[in-house]
Amino acid sequence: MTEVDDYEQEHVEEYETTFGDWLKQEMEEQDVGIPDLVAKTNISYAGIWNIVNGKTISPRQETRDKLAKALKKKVPVKIQQQIDDNASEIPGLDWVDFTPSDLQTIPEEGGVYVFYDTTDRPVYVGMSKGNVRLRVKDHSTCFWFKDPLVVRGAFLSVPDSDLCVKIEKIIIKFLGKHALLNVKGATKDLTD
After folding, report:
1. Residue-wise over 36-73: b if at least 16 C-beta within 10 A, else e?
2. What is the reported pTM?
3. What pLDDT is recorded for position 188?
4. Does 65 score more than 90 pLDDT?
5. Domain limits at 113?
6. Would the pLDDT of 147 be above 90?
7. What Å distances lie between residue 150 and 11, 95, 180, CA to CA?
8. In a shared domain, residues 129 and 100
9. I need a surface site. Which of 46, 57, 101, 170 has the fewest CB within 10 A?
């Protein structure tokens, strides 16, 4: 083990188990604010705020890498493992969080996504067979796509388009009337 690994091992217990807690602590230790990280990473203020405040629990790897690089720190192994464990509950399908208003935090692959409101209630379930970032961008022109109704999102990467459609339908049926913006019984446009 290197000196840095020894230090990390000794101090990893100082951190809570979430990436947001680690990020918040590093920001405090380095006296770095969210605006400083926005300038260094091109991640939106809302995107970083959601991570720091626990709204985005499992940010994408690219987002984590940008923030760690900006802080000149390596994400502790324990925290990285926790994120990986949460993201890989179904082998081959990764679940990540994103900030809908920040396109840079949204994956560019096919899958199913859920929008949550300010109380963490699911309000919309959707899917894209190709590029969810483009699909979410389409939503951004809708009157309902604003805070506090849409604050955060979660995404399940599903490379198989038929499975993607099935998972979306299952989630909508499961949530029923709780997915406020999905009309019960509506036929989805499957051309995404």
Report:
1. ebbeebebbebbbebbbeebbbbbbbebbebbbebbee
2. 0.62
3. 42
4. yes
5. 90-178
6. no
7. 36, 18, 11
8. yes
9. 170
